């Protein structure tokens, strides 16, 4: 099995969608990763790998935290994201970042690193245990891997309720039934601590810990924007896209359904904030 389909998806349709809603991701996810860095500060002067770095904003934040004597490297399988990362590093005039294109599951990750970090990246890896093993092998002995993943669906209604709404209206086409490119396993694939800790242990990590983090996340500056966000991003967006013409035909009906679902998250100022829940997972390469 190769990752061609997933890599193509992240370089094309998913890159376009994430770019459209970049401001929501960059601000919303940064609020969560700041909490991670407060609890697990990247050591000054260290060498850190940001796994599945997307737009690179987190890598840049790490670069600032570790200072000039450290190096923050961002890796992503999609060259379009890496281009954006390089532009960002240039804008920020940073000389302690590196960005490169690689498939985290099979390619050399140019270690050894003191630490690896992944914010909402590992849930999309097609063969996560290969990825986890490769990440561990890229770490120095005793190196720490910190990852942020979504907890269970029900604790993340901004994704789950939207998905349920779309499922009631649009016929679901599985990845096996379509030639369309897709994102890989999906946002809740790392939500189960037993499964994830077994996987980390099986590939050689030790001292595995899970910390729950709940917060409200902004999913739109108004109701319309939140509906478009739900229509495009996450499982709801994937169901519509994979359903092809039928998905497009039913879009109006879906929009009405989503408005009912999302209206309950509206604040007095019209912005939309939904509860979210993540795991901060830490694990160590044996010394
Ligand atoms: C949801 S995005 C998260 C991006 C970023 N970490 C953030 O927090 O904004 C997941 C990222 O993982 C990358 N990705 C998926 N599979 C990958 C693989 N096998 N190797 C490297 N990167 C991968 C995607 O291209 C995408 O940029």
Question: What's this model, at a glance?
Answer:
The chain is α/β, with parallel strands linked by helices. The chain has one domain: Rossmann fold (3-Layer(aba) Sandwich). The chain contains 12 helices and 7 strands.
Q: Which CATH-level-2 architecture?
A: 3-Layer(aba) Sandwich
Bound molecules: S-adenosylmethionine
Strand content: 15-25%
Q: Which structural class matches the secondary elements? A: alpha/beta
Write the layout of secondary structure elements.
Blueprint: H1 4-11, H2 13-20, H3 22-39, E1 47-51, H4 57-66, E2 71-76, H5 79-91, E3 97-101, E4 113-119, H6 128-137, E5 139-150, H7 157-167, H8 193-202, E6 206-220, H9 223-232, H10 234-242, H11 244-249, H12 251-263, E7 272-284
Parallel strand pairs: 1-2, 1-4, 2-3, 4-5
Antiparallel strand pairs: 5-7, 6-7
Helix pairs in contact: 1-2, 7-10, 7-12, 9-10, 9-12
Bound molecules: S-adenosylmethionine.
